[in-house]
Fold:
Amino acid sequence: MKIILSKKGFDSSDGGVASPILPDGTLLSLPILLSSPISYGELHINGHLPGRIAEDLTHGRITRRHGTHLDPDLTAGAYPRLPGWRPLFGQVGAAQSHLAHSGIAVGDLLLFFGWFRQTKMVGGRYRFVSQSPDLHVIFGWLQIGEIISVRRGGAPEWAMYHPHFHGEYAYNNTVYISRRNLQMDRVHPVAGAGAFSHYHDDLRLTMPGCPRTTWQLPRWFYPVAGKSPLRYHSNMQCWSLTDGHAILHSVARGQEFVLDADQYPEAIAWACNLILRRCQPSGWGVQHDEMNRQRRSSSDMTTMGRRGPTSEARFPSRVSRPRVILGGSWCALRRPRESGLVKSSLFCTACLNHLRCTSTGRQVCHGLARLWKAVRLLP
Structure:
C-alpha cells in the first residue's frame, strides 16, 4: 500500500494567498482559479460560501463569478450533482506520470494538504489575522476505489461535471474515484473520502515557529538504510531528528509525495487514526441525500429572481420524484452549453440539472416549487 501526500488548493502561484482557517476553526480549502463550467459562486461548503471568502481574501482579484477547478471534490452537498456521486480527484501531466510510475493503484490513500492561515472578520469581510503563521495542513483524504483514464472513456455519468472531463488535457488525464468506505487494516465505519471540518494540531504538518515547508513528522518518517524516503526527498540534508520527531525541509515545488507503507508500516496506523479521530462516521449516500435536502430548504432559494437564480443561490439536486412539469420559453445558458454532457438535452435554469426525456417527450424538473425556463441545446 502507498500513502500520497498531495498538495492542493490555493498557493503562491495559484490564488496568491492561503486558504482560510475561519474564525470558528473551519478548514476551507479554496480550489484554484481556472476556466471551468463551475464558478466559485456556485459552491456551498459546510455552511460557507467559498466565492465570497475568496473575494474578500484576494481583495476582489478573484470573484465569485470566476471559474474554479473543483478538484479534489470531497464534500457532499458542495455542488449540485447527479445521484450516485462519490468523491473524486483528477491528475494529469508530469504529476500523473509520477503517480503512474510509482505504481499507484486501487486501495492506495491520498492525504490532501495545503497552505492555510487563520482569518477573522473585519467590517463584515474576511481578512487574515496579522502575523498569523503560514501552515501546511492536511485537509482531506481519498482512498482510491477506481482509476479512470479519461482518454479511454468509461466514466460514470454522475462524474461528467468534474473539471477533468472538460477542456484540453494531456493524454494521461486520469480521474481517481473514492471507495465508499475506508478499508485499511479492516473496513471502517467512515467514508472512503472526505474533508476534515475543523483545524486541529493533529492535522498540521508545519513545525511550530518555522516556515510552512519545514515539517514536523512522526519519528518513523525518518529514512534509514534499506528504506526509500518520501518521494522527492531523497537528499538526507533535508532530514533531521529532534525531540522524537523527524524534521523535513520539504521541497517547495511538486504535488504528489509518495510513501511506500510496505516499508513504513507505521504509516497505515498513523493515517487511519488521523482520519478516524477527525472525521464523522457516515455513508456517502446518506450524507449526500441529506445535504441535498438542506439545499432545497435553504433560504438562499429566495435569492432567485424572475429570470432565474443568481450565482449565489444554492441549487437543489435531482431527487427521485418529479414535482413540476417544465413550461415556458427557451433560452441560452452558458454553463450547460459548456458542460458537454450530451449534445441534445435540456437543463433547468433553476437547479441547473440535466433533465431526461420521459416516454411522452415532456421534460420533468425535480425538486422545484415553481416553474422556470429551461435550456435547449441543439445537436
Remarks:
- Residues 2-204+253-278 form one domain.
